[in-house]
Design a protein that fits this description.
This protein is 34% helix and 14% strand. With 260 residues, the protein is α+β, with helices and mostly antiparallel strands. The protein folds into three domains: 63 residues, Orthogonal Bundle (3-methyladenine DNA Glycosylase II, Chain A, domain 3); 99 residues, Alpha-Beta Plaits (2-Layer Sandwich); 75 residues, Alpha-Beta Plaits. It has a two-stranded antiparallel ribbon with strand order 1-4. Helix 2 packs across helix 3 and helix 2 packs antiparallel against helix 4. The chain is elongated.
Protein backbone atom coordinates (compact mmCIF):
# COMPACT_ATOMS: atom_id res chain seq x y z
CA UNK A 1 0.00 0.00 0.00
CA UNK A 2 2.86 2.34 0.84
CA UNK A 3 4.48 1.54 -2.51
CA UNK A 4 1.24 2.18 -4.38
CA UNK A 5 0.79 5.45 -2.50
CA UNK A 6 4.30 6.59 -3.45
CA UNK A 7 3.75 5.52 -7.07
CA UNK A 8 0.52 7.50 -7.47
CA UNK A 9 2.03 10.46 -5.65
CA UNK A 10 4.89 10.42 -8.16
CA UNK A 11 2.42 10.29 -11.05
CA UNK A 12 0.50 13.26 -9.65
CA UNK A 13 3.75 15.18 -9.09
CA UNK A 14 4.85 14.63 -12.69
CA UNK A 15 1.37 15.50 -14.03
CA UNK A 16 1.35 18.69 -11.99
CA UNK A 17 4.72 19.74 -13.40
CA UNK A 18 3.79 18.90 -16.99
CA UNK A 19 0.20 20.19 -17.07
CA UNK A 20 0.40 23.20 -14.76
CA UNK A 21 -0.66 26.46 -16.43
CA UNK A 22 1.53 29.29 -15.25
CA UNK A 23 -0.41 32.41 -14.29
CA UNK A 24 0.79 35.88 -15.01
CA UNK A 25 1.56 37.50 -11.61
CA UNK A 26 0.00 40.70 -12.91
CA UNK A 27 -3.43 39.05 -12.71
CA UNK A 28 -3.20 38.95 -8.92
CA UNK A 29 -2.21 42.61 -8.75
CA UNK A 30 -4.98 43.67 -11.11
CA UNK A 31 -7.52 41.62 -9.16
CA UNK A 32 -6.54 43.39 -5.95
CA UNK A 33 -6.81 46.77 -7.69
CA UNK A 34 -10.41 46.07 -8.76
CA UNK A 35 -13.29 47.05 -6.50
CA UNK A 36 -14.29 43.46 -5.79
CA UNK A 37 -18.07 43.83 -6.09
CA UNK A 38 -18.38 41.12 -8.74
CA UNK A 39 -21.27 43.18 -10.11
CA UNK A 40 -20.83 42.12 -13.74
CA UNK A 41 -20.98 45.69 -15.06
CA UNK A 42 -17.75 45.08 -16.98
CA UNK A 43 -19.27 42.14 -18.82
CA UNK A 44 -17.44 39.46 -16.82
CA UNK A 45 -19.03 37.29 -14.09
CA UNK A 46 -16.38 38.12 -11.48
CA UNK A 47 -13.56 40.57 -10.81
CA UNK A 48 -11.02 37.73 -10.97
CA UNK A 49 -12.08 36.72 -14.47
CA UNK A 50 -12.08 40.38 -15.50
CA UNK A 51 -8.53 40.75 -14.14
CA UNK A 52 -7.34 37.77 -16.16
CA UNK A 53 -8.99 39.20 -19.28
CA UNK A 54 -7.27 42.55 -18.75
CA UNK A 55 -3.87 40.89 -18.36
CA UNK A 56 -4.44 38.85 -21.52
CA UNK A 57 -5.35 41.99 -23.43
CA UNK A 58 -8.93 40.85 -23.95
CA UNK A 59 -10.35 43.71 -21.86
CA UNK A 60 -9.41 47.37 -21.49
CA UNK A 61 -7.68 48.75 -18.40
CA UNK A 62 -10.79 50.84 -17.69
CA UNK A 63 -13.18 47.88 -17.83
CA UNK A 64 -14.11 48.33 -14.16
CA UNK A 65 -16.95 50.81 -14.45
CA UNK A 66 -17.45 50.95 -10.68
CA UNK A 67 -13.80 51.78 -10.01
CA UNK A 68 -13.81 54.53 -12.60
CA UNK A 69 -10.75 56.48 -13.62
CA UNK A 70 -8.95 55.93 -10.31
CA UNK A 71 -8.88 52.14 -10.65
CA UNK A 72 -8.16 52.40 -14.38
CA UNK A 73 -5.08 54.52 -13.68
CA UNK A 74 -3.76 51.97 -11.15
CA UNK A 75 -4.34 49.04 -13.53
CA UNK A 76 -2.71 50.93 -16.39
CA UNK A 77 0.36 51.35 -14.18
CA UNK A 78 0.44 47.61 -13.44
CA UNK A 79 0.15 46.82 -17.14
CA UNK A 80 2.73 49.44 -18.13
CA UNK A 81 0.21 51.33 -20.26
CA UNK A 82 -0.98 54.91 -20.52
CA UNK A 83 -4.54 55.74 -19.58
CA UNK A 84 -6.34 58.74 -21.03
CA UNK A 85 -9.24 59.98 -18.96
CA UNK A 86 -12.61 59.89 -20.69
CA UNK A 87 -14.63 63.05 -21.05
CA UNK A 88 -17.94 61.23 -21.24
CA UNK A 89 -19.84 58.27 -19.83
CA UNK A 90 -23.28 56.71 -20.03
CA UNK A 91 -25.92 57.72 -17.51
CA UNK A 92 -29.22 56.06 -16.71
CA UNK A 93 -32.25 58.27 -17.44
CA UNK A 94 -35.88 57.68 -16.52
CA UNK A 95 -38.35 58.32 -19.34
CA UNK A 96 -41.10 59.38 -16.98
CA UNK A 97 -41.14 62.28 -14.53
CA UNK A 98 -44.27 61.60 -12.48
CA UNK A 99 -44.01 61.53 -8.70
CA UNK A 100 -46.45 61.13 -5.84
CA UNK A 101 -47.99 64.53 -6.59
CA UNK A 102 -48.47 64.13 -10.35
CA UNK A 103 -49.11 60.38 -10.66
CA UNK A 104 -52.76 59.80 -11.58
CA UNK A 105 -54.33 56.83 -9.83
CA UNK A 106 -57.13 54.67 -11.18
CA UNK A 107 -57.26 52.16 -8.31
CA UNK A 108 -55.74 51.60 -4.89
CA UNK A 109 -52.80 49.16 -4.85
CA UNK A 110 -51.80 47.69 -1.49
CA UNK A 111 -49.83 44.63 -2.55
CA UNK A 112 -46.10 43.84 -2.47
CA UNK A 113 -43.95 46.97 -2.67
CA UNK A 114 -42.40 45.98 -5.96
CA UNK A 115 -42.80 47.45 -9.42
CA UNK A 116 -42.77 43.97 -10.97
CA UNK A 117 -45.57 42.76 -8.70
CA UNK A 118 -47.62 45.96 -9.06
CA UNK A 119 -47.33 45.90 -12.83
CA UNK A 120 -48.94 42.48 -12.91
CA UNK A 121 -51.93 43.58 -10.84
CA UNK A 122 -54.14 46.29 -12.32
CA UNK A 123 -51.11 48.26 -13.52
CA UNK A 124 -50.26 49.05 -9.92
CA UNK A 125 -53.35 51.23 -9.77
CA UNK A 126 -51.84 53.76 -12.18
CA UNK A 127 -53.94 55.43 -14.82
CA UNK A 128 -50.99 55.40 -17.25
CA UNK A 129 -49.84 51.90 -18.15
CA UNK A 130 -46.50 53.22 -19.45
CA UNK A 131 -45.39 55.37 -16.52
CA UNK A 132 -43.16 54.88 -13.49
CA UNK A 133 -44.81 52.84 -10.74
CA UNK A 134 -42.61 54.48 -8.12
CA UNK A 135 -41.95 51.44 -5.93
CA UNK A 136 -38.18 51.54 -6.34
CA UNK A 137 -37.12 48.27 -7.99
CA UNK A 138 -34.46 50.26 -9.86
CA UNK A 139 -33.07 51.73 -6.64
CA UNK A 140 -32.99 48.33 -4.95
CA UNK A 141 -30.78 46.74 -7.62
CA UNK A 142 -28.33 49.63 -8.04
CA UNK A 143 -24.94 48.34 -6.76
CA UNK A 144 -23.59 51.80 -5.94
CA UNK A 145 -26.71 53.51 -4.52
CA UNK A 146 -26.85 55.93 -7.45
CA UNK A 147 -30.66 55.92 -7.39
CA UNK A 148 -32.75 57.28 -4.56
CA UNK A 149 -36.54 57.45 -4.37
CA UNK A 150 -37.79 60.98 -3.80
CA UNK A 151 -41.52 61.66 -3.53
CA UNK A 152 -42.25 58.34 -5.23
CA UNK A 153 -39.90 58.92 -8.17
CA UNK A 154 -36.37 57.64 -8.89
CA UNK A 155 -33.65 60.30 -8.89
CA UNK A 156 -30.32 59.35 -10.46
CA UNK A 157 -27.02 60.68 -9.15
CA UNK A 158 -24.94 61.52 -12.23
CA UNK A 159 -21.66 61.27 -10.30
CA UNK A 160 -22.41 57.86 -8.80
CA UNK A 161 -24.03 56.17 -11.82
CA UNK A 162 -21.73 53.55 -13.35
CA UNK A 163 -23.98 52.68 -16.33
CA UNK A 164 -24.12 49.01 -15.33
CA UNK A 165 -27.65 48.68 -16.71
CA UNK A 166 -29.04 46.87 -13.65
CA UNK A 167 -31.85 49.42 -13.31
CA UNK A 168 -32.67 49.12 -17.01
CA UNK A 169 -33.26 45.39 -16.61
CA UNK A 170 -35.14 45.75 -13.32
CA UNK A 171 -37.81 48.14 -14.62
CA UNK A 172 -40.88 46.13 -15.73
CA UNK A 173 -42.08 49.02 -17.89
CA UNK A 174 -38.81 49.58 -19.73
CA UNK A 175 -38.72 53.30 -19.00
CA UNK A 176 -35.02 53.50 -18.11
CA UNK A 177 -32.27 53.76 -20.71
CA UNK A 178 -28.57 54.61 -20.79
CA UNK A 179 -27.62 57.90 -22.43
CA UNK A 180 -24.23 59.36 -23.29
CA UNK A 181 -23.38 62.20 -20.92
CA UNK A 182 -20.53 64.68 -20.85
CA UNK A 183 -19.91 67.72 -18.69
CA UNK A 184 -18.75 69.45 -21.86
CA UNK A 185 -22.01 68.91 -23.73
CA UNK A 186 -25.67 69.40 -22.92
CA UNK A 187 -27.74 66.21 -22.98
CA UNK A 188 -31.53 66.28 -23.00
CA UNK A 189 -34.14 63.53 -23.17
CA UNK A 190 -37.91 63.09 -23.28
CA UNK A 191 -39.27 62.00 -19.91
CA UNK A 192 -42.21 60.04 -21.25
CA UNK A 193 -42.79 56.54 -22.59
CA UNK A 194 -46.47 56.67 -23.50
CA UNK A 195 -47.12 55.79 -27.16
CA UNK A 196 -50.85 56.55 -27.11
CA UNK A 197 -52.28 59.51 -29.08
CA UNK A 198 -51.97 62.88 -27.37
CA UNK A 199 -55.59 63.07 -26.23
CA UNK A 200 -55.32 59.73 -24.45
CA UNK A 201 -52.01 60.70 -22.88
CA UNK A 202 -53.63 63.87 -21.51
CA UNK A 203 -56.42 61.83 -19.95
CA UNK A 204 -53.99 59.81 -17.80
CA UNK A 205 -51.04 62.19 -17.37
CA UNK A 206 -50.69 65.95 -17.51
CA UNK A 207 -46.91 65.90 -18.03
CA UNK A 208 -46.63 63.25 -20.75
CA UNK A 209 -45.55 63.72 -24.36
CA UNK A 210 -48.47 64.53 -26.66
CA UNK A 211 -46.41 64.42 -29.87
CA UNK A 212 -47.33 68.01 -30.73
CA UNK A 213 -44.22 68.40 -32.89
CA UNK A 214 -43.02 71.71 -31.44
CA UNK A 215 -39.67 70.24 -30.39
CA UNK A 216 -39.20 68.70 -33.81
CA UNK A 217 -39.77 72.03 -35.58
CA UNK A 218 -37.56 74.07 -33.24
CA UNK A 219 -34.68 71.57 -33.47
CA UNK A 220 -34.65 71.07 -37.26
CA UNK A 221 -35.31 67.37 -36.88
CA UNK A 222 -33.03 66.63 -33.92
CA UNK A 223 -36.19 65.59 -32.12
CA UNK A 224 -38.01 62.82 -33.99
CA UNK A 225 -41.61 61.79 -33.46
CA UNK A 226 -42.22 58.10 -33.90
CA UNK A 227 -45.26 56.12 -32.79
CA UNK A 228 -46.84 59.16 -31.07
CA UNK A 229 -43.71 59.78 -29.00
CA UNK A 230 -40.88 62.28 -29.35
CA UNK A 231 -37.26 61.21 -28.93
CA UNK A 232 -34.07 63.23 -29.28
CA UNK A 233 -31.30 62.12 -31.64
CA UNK A 234 -28.12 63.48 -30.03
CA UNK A 235 -26.03 62.36 -33.00
CA UNK A 236 -27.87 64.82 -35.23
CA UNK A 237 -27.42 67.54 -32.62
CA UNK A 238 -23.65 67.52 -33.15
CA UNK A 239 -24.00 69.09 -36.58
CA UNK A 240 -26.54 71.74 -35.61
CA UNK A 241 -26.81 74.65 -33.22
CA UNK A 242 -29.78 73.59 -31.14
CA UNK A 243 -31.42 76.09 -28.82
CA UNK A 244 -32.06 73.65 -25.99
CA UNK A 245 -33.38 76.28 -23.59
CA UNK A 246 -36.10 77.41 -25.99
CA UNK A 247 -37.12 73.83 -26.77
CA UNK A 248 -37.34 72.90 -23.09
CA UNK A 249 -39.32 76.07 -22.37
CA UNK A 250 -41.72 75.69 -25.31
CA UNK A 251 -42.65 72.07 -24.57
CA UNK A 252 -46.32 72.39 -23.47
CA UNK A 253 -46.17 69.52 -20.97
CA UNK A 254 -42.58 70.16 -19.80
CA UNK A 255 -41.55 66.57 -20.47
CA UNK A 256 -38.20 67.50 -22.05
CA UNK A 257 -35.53 67.38 -19.35
CA UNK A 258 -31.78 67.84 -19.18
CA UNK A 259 -29.25 65.58 -17.48
CA UNK A 260 -27.51 67.62 -14.76
Amino acid sequence: MVALGLFFALILFIADKKLRISEDPKAEKVDKALVGLNCGACGYPSCRIAAEAIVKGEAAVDSCIVGGEGVATIIAGIMGKDFSKKTHKNIAVVHCSVDSATRQISASYSGIKSCVAANLLMQGGMACKYGCLGLGDCAKVCPVDAIIMKNGAPVIDVEKCISCGACVKACPRNIISLRRYSVEERTVYVACNNIEPGKQVRSVCKIGCIACGICQKLSEGVFEINNNLSRVNMQKAKDKKVDWDTIIQKCPTKCILEIK
